[in-house]
Design brief:
The protein has 877 residues and is α/β, with parallel strands linked by helices. The protein is 50% helix and 12% strand. Helix 8 packs across helix 9, helix 35 packs across helix 36 and helix 36 crosses helix 37. The structure holds a DNA duplex (10 and 16 nucleotides).
Length: 877
DNA sequence: CTGCGCACGC
DNA sequence: GACGTACGTGCGCAGT
């Protein structure tokens, strides 16, 4: 077997990774994106290439021997961003853990080290592969040396052999240098011959083969201008050649034999990945038996496995973890319960726990305080088993989310590791994932779950202190914690669904879909998979020759906005649009909902209270926050949502323009406040102010545009986003936004101030002190910075609206209880609450619900709530 | 199993 | 000039 040598251009790959990936942070605030990208690439190479020898070359410093030839070499190049520089030492640490040699040499560039070693490998008859993002390296390609260049992203590469180069670039590896010498390279400040680009350079080299030959026969060059340019800049060209030529005789101290690759250090790598927060990469490290070593390194925790719950095991202020397998706590079963307090840690197997009246009594005792992770999950799980858990006064999940919603993993092990408590493994390591998900044998299970309870107990103080330091204690204690119990109630109650009605709609849709599909196949002249944009594209844009409006990464775009522009060009288009619309209803809403109805005809969604960056809730399995309403056809889905009891109605109450009212309040804009106090139609008012016209002069078109601008303000979209939604140019969109801000100077001031504030503090807050960190607000990358700026303007608006409706839910929940009404909340859809109630309570509710919602906070503008009721959700409009 | 294109809501 | 652009969830497809 021949040896295989892999040579990596360290700086180039780190650069690529840095710009290809979002600026990730680990829990210590260190940027890790370049290291992460580098790591994925290394893992891929090791998995795919099986190298016997390997080395990563780095540039040694700013000055190189090339600067002697040409002082301005690489002049004008942007300084390496500090966010990247700080990652380079980590990168070296990473390579050490991988046991991969790395090397740098004063005055030489990584290219030269690679070139030298590549030639040595070649002479030894080894297989050599060079990996870089720099096309200059292509000059090294030969029969034994291939060069892989990164394409988009970081793990995608394009591998060049001599044949592939001929085919793709029409030149040979030797000619790469001459090509560069003619073209120059602005990023390295290499002059080349002005006016000669890639096309001309290739043409010249095809004709004359080498640079020397071009100048030797310059008289034969066609084109007077070109000839002149070549003659004037001959010297530049030859100097450029010198600059781009990679040195293959660099005086390096290492030999290729010394850089053998023997495999990585599993322990070191594991530890490093954990430190860096690369949890997803840990299971790509090979060696199952080595995993055991990590296991063994966890400090012992003494756990008592309980076969009968005794009162002596239970105490006030106890951490409680109820563990289940899988995500959906409406159907999953409990695998075990652990409790931890200052006197001990216990594991109670599921069957023991559920049969114990001692435990039940303790769980239901309000005075016995419990600390948990995810109170909602624990509450719903216990409700399903007839236990009404009370006395939860700490929820680690909610606390962690409030401290930093941007953390992507709010599970006990992740939070624990972030806070420096590493004596627990990740769920994925214990349970596996996907199809391999399973409960381990009891010792491992009880140990893991017990550790969770132990950690909840241990971390409580730290987390509470963080909340207090952030001035978020009230947000946590008076808003999110009560809310989570209310949500548990709503989820457990569920919404009733008229299954027959859904099925009926499904049958009707099925017939129509079949017919439309038939029509489309006839219009297309062939059958294909209509649900595949990849197959639809060629039919529309090649076979039917329709104009291409937009492309996606993988082919033609066939999205609705594209198709709408083609609607009058071919009858097939409107059929496709209809097919898509109905197909969506069928698959997502009819079939999707039917799949999750339980045997009592109810649907139980799960509200995720610890996910969105703004403080809103989200809803899953099913998502009941995106049931169709805009188009009549879809809206009919709502007819399938019904009250759970005969003689009851659904009652829906929604805030009118809550975000714009919040904006008026936060920005304290006189005109906007006035508009709401006068109960004006806000979009018409905006149109009057933006277009400087009187009310009776506002056209539908103007109102529509004003509405889109308001929408943009509320959602923090860019001029680009606004231009898309209005079908106008970016410039026009920008004009609209500017005129809006001129009309509402208070808003303008708010926008300026909040961005400044965010820059200074690093985060923005809402009315109730919800936080969102915006590390990108000081980024030198325009896109990242702009996005962060829009987020700074938008999050306080959306987040405050979220705060308000959450508070309203709490107020309403307790008011309904106090008034001893049977009415109960079922759903929340961001600015709207869905309630079910017996008919005789409706008159009370009309007064009470709107009142509670409107009075929950007091702003500089009134909050206005509209409501409606009916026999189905559809009718509550 | 994952990423993509698409579509639904606020 | 920056080439990607509110927040979410879920579906089917296609490639691994």
């Amino acid at each position: 077997m021949t040896n295989k040598l892999i040579l990596i251009d360290g700086n180039s790959i780190a650069y690529r990774a840095f710009f290809a990936l979002p600026l990730l942070n680990n829990d210590k605030g260190v940027h890790t994106n370049a290291v992460y990208g580098f790591t994925t690439m290394l893992l891929k190479i090791l998995e795919e290439e099986n190298p016997t020898h390997m080395l990563v070359a780095f540039d040694a410093g700013k000055t190189t021997f090339r600067h002697k030839t040409y002082e301005a070499y690489k002049g004008g190049r942007q300084k390496t961003p500090p966010e990247l520089s700080e990652q380079l030492p980590i990168l070296r640490e990473l390579l050490d853990a991988f046991n991969i040699s790395h090397y740098e040499l004063p005055l030489y560039e990584a290219d030269d080290i690679i070139g030298t070693l590549a030639r040595k490998g070649e002479q030894a008859n080894w297989e050599v592969k060079v990996i870089s993002g720099d096309r200059d390296l292509l000059q090294l390609v030969s029969e034994r040396v291939t060069v892989a260049l990164t394409k988009k992203g970081i793990t995608n590469v394009e591998t060049y052999t001599p044949e592939y180069m001929k085919e793709k670039m029409e030149i040979s590896p030797e000619q790469v240098i001459d090509l560069k010498a003619l073209m120059g390279d602005s990023s390295d400040n290499i002059p080349g011959v002005p006016g000669v680009g890639e096309k001309t350079a290739v043409k010249l080299l095809k004709q004359f083969t080498t640079l020397e030959n071009v100048f030797a026969n310059v008289q034969e060059v066609s084109g007077k201008k070109l000839k002149e340019k070549l003659e004037t800049h001959q010297e530049d060209a030859f100097m450029s050649k010198e600059l781009v030529t990679i040195h293959v005789d660099t005086p390096i101290e290492t030999t290729i034999e010394q850089i053998g690759y023997q495999g990585y250090d599993v322990m070191k790598l594991n530890q490093l990945f954990r430190d860096l927060g690369f949890h997803s990469l840990i299971n790509r490290i090979e060696g199952e038996e080595d995993k055991k070593q990590v296991e063994d390194t966890l400090p012992d925790l003494h756990v008592t496995i309980v076969d009968q719950v005794e009162e002596s095991m239970l105490a006030n202020h106890t951490a409680l973890v109820i563990e289940m397998l899988g995500e959906n706590y409406h159907e999953a079963s409990i695998v075990g319960i652990s409790i931890a307090h200052d006197k001990g840690v216990y594991f109670i197997p599921a069957d023991v726990a559920l049969q114990s009246s001692v435990l039940k009594q303790w769980l239901e005792d309000e005075k016995q305080k419990k600390m948990v992770f995810d109170a909602k999950k624990a509450t719903v799980l216990m409700k399903r088993h007839g236990i009404d858990i009370k006395g939860i006064d700490f929820d680690l999940l909610i606390a962690s989310y409030l401290i930093n919603p941007a953390e992507s993993h709010h599970d006990i092990p992740s939070i624990s590791h972030r806070l420096g408590e590493t004596s627990i493994r990740y769920d994925e390591e214990v349970y596996g994932k996907g199809a391999k998900l399973q409960v381990p044998e009891q010792d491992a299970l009880s140990d893991h779950i017990a550790r969770k309870a132990h950690i909840v107990n241990k971390l409580k103080q730290t987390v509470v202190q963080q909340l207090k330091d952030n001035d978020q204690w009230e947000l946590y204690h008076d808003l999110e914690l009560p809310l989570t119990l209310i949500l548990a109630d709503m989820e457990h109650t569920g919404v009733s669904v008229d299954v027959d009605r859904l099925k009926g709609m499904g049958e009707g849709l099925q017939k129509r879909l079949a017919q439309i599909q038939q029509n489309i196949y006839e219009l297309a002249g062939e059958t294909f998979n209509l649900n595949s944009p990849k197959q639809l594209g060629p039919i529309l844009f090649e076979k039917l020759q329709l104009p291409v409006i937009k492309k996606t990464k993988t082919g033609y775009s066939t999205s609705a906005d594209v198709l709408e522009q083609l609607e009058d060009k071919h009858p097939i288009i409107s059929e496709i649009l209809l097919y898509r619309q109905l197909g969506k209803l069928q698959s997502t809403y009819i079939e999707g909902l039917l799949k999750v109805v339980d045997d009592t005809g109810k649907i139980h969604t799960r509200f995720n209270q610890a996910l969105t960056q703004t403080g809103r809730l989200s809803s899953t399995e099913p998502n009941l926050q995106n049931i169709p309403i805009r188009l009549e056809e879809g809206r009919k889905i709502r007819q399938a949502f019904i009250p759970s009891q005969k003689g009851w109605k659904l009652f829906a109450a929604d805030y009118s323009q809550i975000e714009l009212r919040v904006l008026a309040h936060i920005a304290n804009d006189e005109k906007l406040i006035q508009a709401f106090n006068d109960h004006e139609d806000i979009h018409t008012k905006t149109a009057m102010d933006v277009f400087h016209v009187e009310k009776d002069q506002v056209t539908d078109q103007m109102r529509r545009q004003a509405k889109a601008v308001n929408f943009g303000i509320v959602y923090g979209i860019s001029d680009f986003g606004l231009s898309q939604s209005l079908g106008i140019t970016r410039k026009e969109a920008k004009t609209f936004i500017d005129r809006y801000l001129q009309s509402y100077p208070g808003v303008q001031t708010y926008m300026d101030d909040i961005v400044q504030d965010a820059k200074q503090k690093g985060y923005v807050t809402t009315l109730m002190n919800r936080r969102r960190y915006l590390p990108d607000i000081t980024s030198r990358n325009f896109n990242r910075r702009s996005f962060a700026e829009r987020t700074a303007m938008n999050t306080p608006i959306q987040g405050t609206a979220a705060d308000i409706i959450k508070k309203a839910m709490i107020d309403l929940y307790y008011t309904l209880a106090e008034e001893q009404l049977e009415a109960r909340m079922l759903l929340q859809v961001h600015d709207e609450l869905i309630i079910e109630a017996p008919e005789h309570e409706l008159d009370t509710l009309k007064e009470l619900v709107a009142n509670v919602m409107e009075q929950t906070v007091s702003l500089h503008v009134p909050l206005v709530v509209d409501y409606a009721f009916g026999d189905t959700w559809y009718d509550a409009k």
